[in-house]
Design brief:
Strand order of the largest sheet of chain B: 4-5-10-6-7
Largest sheet of chain B: 5 strands, antiparallel
Radius of gyration of chain B: 18 Å
Number of helices of chain A: 5
Structural class of chain A: alpha/beta
Number of helices of chain B: 12
Low-confidence stretches of chain B: none
Mean pLDDT of chain B: 97
Distance between the termini of chain A: 14 Å
Largest sheet of chain A: 6 strands, mixed
Strand content of chain A: 15-25%
CATH superfamily of one domain in chain B: CO dehydrogenase flavoprotein, C-terminal domain
CATH class of the largest domain in chain A: Alpha Beta
CATH topology of the largest domain in chain A: Ubiquitin-like (UB roll)
Oligomer: heterodimer
Helix content of chain B: 25-40%
Strand content of chain B: 15-25%
Number of strands of chain B: 14
CATH architecture of the largest domain in chain A: Roll
Chain lengths: 170, 265
């Protein structure tokens, strides 16, 4: 077992894990942050996308020990402290950017990453960026509209409660 | 996934000696190929030697003389977004921007991709066409000596890639016909012009990346896609599977070579 310490959604987490434990398993099974989904488990669908040190990554294709000392933000960590939806979440709601909702956490995280890099992406750029996120309901039309809506209404803004300093043990 | 011992060295020398001290260890860079391999139990290393602690030492993009020099731990996203790469070898930025998807590009590294030598990876075509040299902890390996077979390279057991050096071409282009889900190349062709010489690197079509001397000779005479029309690509060594048969891949090599010449700048 290896001891790791990381910040998850602004909170410091210390855990003792097997080196083979995947980051997504740490999040879902140890920390009970089940908003991050496992769709394909083969690095293709993007349902497990989270931020690691501010860049979107597939948590099914990263070991928990690789997140030692890093800052992880999941879908649970992007809304404001008072529960107000993150602008991207609000845009997905407004534009019907979800059907069954399974791919949504990954879609939202990836879309925020895109707007952090490009303030006003074209439809083509949005579709290209979201290649790593698969919606099996094929609801891409609403998803693309949501990203455009968010971009046109103030952008993705800041993410979550990263200022909190509480500690928990997993 | 079988368990393993996880190591976190801080320097190249530490990483190499740590790896040497294991009975069946592997280096772990971005892990975008290796972790899927481990999940399928296709490899069961005793130890994983993480290279994350070497990031500062081995993540850089710079120009030295007529070479573009990229540190082994530079991510695909960094290569794709680099103004230096876009200026010196724009086709290489195009290649990097088409690897996997955004999340994979945020984590996958050039050194990891080259060492893994997936027959359908993009970088091998660039290594061959751009006459790259691969620097390791102990020596320098020429592009033409590097890729040996499917997932096999000239790297010795425990040898670590530290840097890849690409020769700046007069102009070059890369295009691929990719699998719609994984973005891996069914066929990818990189064409690079160096004065009177042309180099053509092909990935995806066979079990290992290769050059096409017939295409190179024809394009050296005239850098025009039309000169490739009459040249037959042998199907013999090409991958023949349900998704894309060997005869189809052979045709796609020509099609994408022509498009790469057209796109070259």
């Amino acid at each position: 077992m290896t001891s790791i310490t990381l910040r998850v959604n602004g909170k410091q987490v210390t855990a003792s894990v097997e080196p083979r434990l995947l980051l997504v398993e740490l999040l879902r099974e140890n920390l009970h942050l089940t908003g991050t989904h496992v769709g394909c488990d083969t690095s293709q669908c993007g349902a497990c996308t989270v931020f690691v040190d501010g860049a979107s990554m597939k948590s099914c294709t990263m070991l928990a020990v690789e997140a030692d000392g890093r800052e992880v933000t999941t879908i649970e960590g992007i809304a404001a402290k008072d529960g107000t939806l993150h602008p991207m979440q609000a845009a997905f709601k407004e534009c019907h950017g979800l059907q069954c909702g399974f791919c949504t956490p990954g879609m939202v995280i990836s879309s925020i990453d895109l707007l952090k890099r490009k303030k006003d992406p074209s439809e083509h750029e949005i579709r290209e960026w979201l290649e790593g996120n698969i919606c099996r309901c094929t609801g891409y039309h609403g998803i693309v509209k949501a990203v455009q809506h968010c971009a046109k209404n103030g952008g993705a803004g800041a993410v979550g409660d990263a200022t909190k300093k509480e500690s928990t043990n997993a | 996934m079988e368990n393993f011992v996880f190591h976190t060295p801080k320097t190249v020398a530490d990483a190499v000696s740590t790896r040497k001290g294991t009975s069946g260890g592997k280096f772990l860079a971005g892990g975008q190929s290796l972790i899927p391999v481990l999940k399928l139990d296709l490899a069961q290393p005793t130890d994983l030697v993480s290279l994350a602690g070497l990031k500062k030492e081995l993540s850089y993009i710079k120009v030295e003389g007529d070479e573009l020099v990229i540190g082994a731990l530079t991510t695909h996203a960094d290569v794709a977004g680099s103004d230096v790469v876009k200026k010196i070898i724009p086709s290489l930025a195009v290649l990097a921007s088409g690897i996997g998807d955004a999340q994979v590009r945020n984590r996958g590294t050039i050194g990891g991709s080259v060492a893994h030598a997936d027959p359908a990876a993009d970088y091998p075509a660039a290594i061959l066409a751009l006459d790259a040299t691969i620097k390791t902890d102990r020596r320098t390996i020429k592009a033409d000596d590097f890729f040996k077979a499917m997932f096999e390279t000239a790297l010795e057991d425990g040898e670590l890639i530290t840097e890849v050096r690409f020769k700046k071409p007069e102009k070059a282009g890369y295009l691929k016909f990719n699998n719609p889900a994984s973005k891996y190349a069914i066929v990818g062709v990189y064409v690079a012009k160096y004065g009177p010489n042309v180099r053509v690197g092909v990935t995806g079509a066979a079990t290992v990346a290769f050059r096409l001397p017939d295409f190179e000779a024809a394009l050296a005479k005239s850098f025009d896609p039309k000169v490739l029309d009459g040249i037959k690509v042998s199907e013999e060594d090409l991958v023949n599977e349900r998704d894309a048969k060997a005869d189809y891949r052979a045709q796609m090599v020509t099609v994408f070579a022509k498009r790469a010449v057209e796109a070259a700048h």
